[in-house]
Amino acid sequence: MNSDLGDISTLLIYGAMASYVVAMIAFAVDVSALGVGAPKDRRRRAAGIGLSTMWLGAGLQFVAIVVRGLAAGRVPWANMYEFTLMFTFFVVAIFLGLQTRRDVRYLGVAVSMLAFLALMLAVAVLYVEADGVQPALRSYWLVIHVSVATLATGLSGLAAMISIAQLVKARSERATVSAGSAAMAASGATAEVTSGAAGGTSATATAVAEPSTQPSATFGSRIVGSLPPSANMERLAYRLNAVGFVAWTFTLVAGAVWAEHAWGRPWGWDPKETWTFVIWVIYAAYLHARVTTGWAAEKFAYFALVGFMAVLANFYIVNIFFSGKHSYAGV
Amino acid sequence: MRVALLLLLLLAVVALPGAFFPQRTSDPNAVQQYFLDHPDTADLLDSLHLFDVYASPWFSAVYLLLFVSLIGCILPRTWVHLKNLRAEPSRVPSRFTRFDVRGQARAAGTPEQVRRRLDAALGRRYRRRLASERGRTADGETRTALTISAERGFGRETGNLVFHLALVGLLVVTAWGQLVHYRGQVVVVQGDTFVNAPLDFDSFDTGSWYGADAQEPFRVRLDSFESEFTVDSQARDFVAGVTLTETDGSTRTADVRVNHPLETDDTRIYLTGNGFAPRFTVTDGSGEVAFSGAVPFLPTADPNYASNGVVMVPDANGGERQLGFNGVLLPTAAADEEGNLIGSAYPQPLDPAVVLNVWVGDLGLDNGVPQNLYLLDTTDMEQVLTTAEDGTEAPVQVVLRPGESVELPDGLGTITFEDLPRFAAFDVRYDPSIVWMGVFAGLAFAGLVASLFLPRRRIWVRLVAGADGATVVSAAALARGDDPGLQRELDRVLAVLESDQAATSKEDR
Ligand code: HEM
């Protein structure tokens, strides 16, 4: 409709992508400094730069999304390109929001990389001009259903990043324990118990990070050593996934209401609906396991990763390769 | 609970094949196509129910087992929970050291006074039980301790139960809806009317408890149909203007759009498709009008609405030599350099034309086999040919624009393309379970939120008179599941004792 505005929006997205690349490099520098045995309490300048550029990127992306909406004359989440803009924005925004309450800078590299790669794919492959939509998409349920779906994707995505960090950390924790460091085993055990209260984190983190200052520690193990205890990360991932599950549930219900309005049936096992159902069941099983079994924390992480992989498959594979009623949303 | 988990995972697994194989319920044409494309595997897949996964025995088995397990688990829990709701909070545990979240304080005043302050600080959310206990100190003296045990967050368990029960409710109402629903599909040409009765629909299906008396006998006339497209042929809006005559004879007009079904008392009418229905008049060799009417042409996948259709004239020539036409309608005819029509350039009827082949013979309408109205069965028919100047024979192609008329060869008669009304396709659906699905889905959602985010907490306090007239307070707290705010909550409660004694210590955890 208004192609000038559309172009401005795209330029802003390039700006956001550039910011995320800078942020990614800055966070990587920060992390690698840990690897060479920098003192624990050094001022983390690089991480600070990373955070500022993340804020900049998120700001640019927010404006880009708003401008995109103005250009198209509707809410800016009606095709895969726009969906990507939304969910990457949510990943970054939730990350920045979390950072205001606790230290999650260790996620910086993963988050900026995820945002950059997804945006890159969107710009290169999924891009479409800002335009109106088909009659089937003209509904306020588009506003509700799809926006919450992007939020859910963002939550699941961020939680998956944390789960990966958790798995990496857990491996090194096990290695440390089996190396027979009794002291380490003790402090690791404390970490398991304490970290419920947010305040307890810093003390335990130091305790666990201790071996990283030993001269024998390798580059990689120092980096891993600086991560918070895996039990803490598991708990954070769980809370994001719990909120994410609520968002998925809402997406599912709102989608059914909309399908009822548009197609005269709330549920039809269209490929998209089927996948969304499967994702919902996987996360339900994850929460179930988390709430009712006493499994080891790593199993939950694998579970959550499978869930996020299904989310990605639902978006990238189902939208492009499966035909169904949802395919009008198009590339 | 292992069983429930296993069944949940199994449910995810058995639901997936339906995303990979076409399903009869959602896309029957794709299933037919699959049979054509893969004749050697299709039958095997079909016998495994892979084309109707969601009605298959194995899919049903998984979800029914899941729900049996759900009911078996949730009903007893509901019972226990109802009893707990009336029970008093549990006693104060004798030792606090086994809890991670604890607090201690010294406060001025007697234990009784301090307890009153703490009691007030807990707030309304907590149910509590105030008691006292006699104990013996290390040096053998008896002493009396006052206690508070408080708990909150029954909503967490209530929410969890509501969530699970609502899932059962959802399943039950869905099944009920399947039994009592009906759904009819009908194609209506502008100016025509349909009645909500089984015979008037092109296709009609019902659940097994369907009763014909459930069907409101309303009528719907399609007054107008309008569509809107962008310059590059993308659809932007479809509006069917209709007049609805209700059971009591009252009439009203309404616009039916995609996403905006028309509602009667208990039925909804959805706009599901549209296209053009060229109106033809056919006369036979004797000059009699053998056919006159509008014939819906079905849009193909073409965004510019090139549509396929058939005109059948069983009454031509006294039924001896029946006439049939098949061909395409092009809303905006586009021609190549030689003037041959090659396609449609726009979805609106800017310059409509039909291109028809002509057949003569037996239409096969009388042999009782149901006919597809959009397909000409040419087994007993012969295509009408024409001889060109160089002596070669070629099929006759009739090209007509509105108002035009052509003489058919061999004295077969004439065909006239009168005008081009539109048609709309409607789905009429009655399913009283929809409202209830909404209710249960809403309950499930609310229950889920409560179950995940309402904290379930217990706080215990023991107050003993200290040596100097002050009171020694020790407290512990316990939560169900992860509860990062638990320590803060305990601190909040103990904070009313203010700075009496550097307030609480988190203890060395
Ligand atoms: C698709 C959704 C779900 C289904 C079909 C389902 C099914 C079930 C079933 C069958 C049980 C009985 C377990 C047993 O055998 O003891 C159960 C229990 C339970 N479910 Fe779910 N559930 C679902 C989602 C959830 C979610 C999202 C939560 C999240 C908090 C949850 C929490 C629980 C809890 C706490 C129990 C009690 C476990 C126990 O008594 O040990 N469920 N559920």
From TrEMBL, chain B:
Q: Where in the cell is it found?
A: Membrane
Q: Which residues cross the membrane?
A: 58-76, 161-179, 434-454
Where is it predominantly found?
A: membrane
Topology relative to the membrane: Multi-pass membrane protein
Alphabetic keyword roster? Cytochrome c-type biogenesis, Membrane, Transmembrane, Transmembrane helix
Pfam families according to UniProt: ResB
Superkingdom is Bacteria
Return the PANTHER family for the record: CYTOCHROME C BIOGENESIS PROTEIN CCS1, CHLOROPLASTIC
Full protein name: Cytochrome c biogenesis protein ResB
